[in-house]
Amino acid sequence: MSRSRVLITGGAGFIGSHLADLFLSRDWDVVVMDNLLTGDLKNIEHLIGKPEFQFFKQDVTEYIHVSGKIDAILHFASPASPIDYQEYPIQTLKVGSLGTHKALGLARSCGAKFLLASTSEVYGDPQIHPQPESYWGNVNPIGVRGVYDEAKRFAEAMTLAYHRAHGVDTRIVRIFNTYGSRMRLNDGRALPNFVCQAIRGEALTVYGDGAQTRSFCHVSDLIEGIWKLLHVDTHDPVNIGNPNEIPITEFARKVLSATGSSSAIKNHPLPEDDPQVRQPDISRAREILGWEPAVSLEEGLRMTVPYLEEKIRQLGNETLSVPE
Length: 324
Ligand code: UDP
Prior knowledge:
binds uridine-5'-diphosphate, 37% helix, Rossmann fold, 324 residues, 9 helices, alpha/beta, 2 domains, two-stranded parallel sheet, UDP-galactose 4-epimerase, domain 1, 13 strands
């Protein structure tokens, strides 16, 4: 029997590269397409040269083609941290719209399944808490985060349109805050910022009063949920995240304890449209995937902090730009 083959757009990024590893470990051939805008070849350098792995440096907002059969397309290409999508607002809108259209067109022409990486950002600053998939969200379309939120909302609409109009076998995963190895040190997210600051003995930059909450999921749990979602027959969006919700100040304290740092915590202004609360309702994932997260925050930090520390060490005397 011939092996299955998956195309992962954004496969040189944080989550995409973990998916590449997972599919290879489960005997799939993997093709990664990435324009390396925010992705990094280092995340997949251990795969280059393997016969079952291919990499194409390409922008998925242009026409895309891959020769040979493709059984599944995982569309993960996009800047994904608030700092990144504010630095690349037009690319973010284009990859969510034009890129999703191109990837869906390829899925249609190959008869491949299509899985869209959507986001908890479709719920915006939510007025329903925790957030079930049935919630339509509270997004500011013209705010600084709108470029990402609306691109992903458009991408969901386009995905369902291809399913309804063309019968493409689609999936939509709504990904909540995820952490783990291969996060970029300077992507501006809370975890890399806090770890860098803790290790360098600088004050941790907690935005606002730090009472805003997030629910952090280890990447190993997330990719297992995505694997399961690809293998069940459902076209509705499914939240994948860890419902263990904590205020950001408490998260900063957990980083201090995981790094053994005695840095102070300093409050900075809250960025525009920063959601006040976020917690996934994962009833649907439990029911249809039989999935729930297994890694506690403490355990996940124990696995992730040494990776980030090593990356900081490799930088040596280079100045680290930590967005504040
Ligand atoms: N945050 C913070 N300090 C930082 C970076 C982020 O207090 O140095 C806060 C941010 O305002 C948000 C939360 O941490 O409330 C999570 O931010 P992140 O950028 O990791 O992801 P988001 O959930 O906002 O997309």
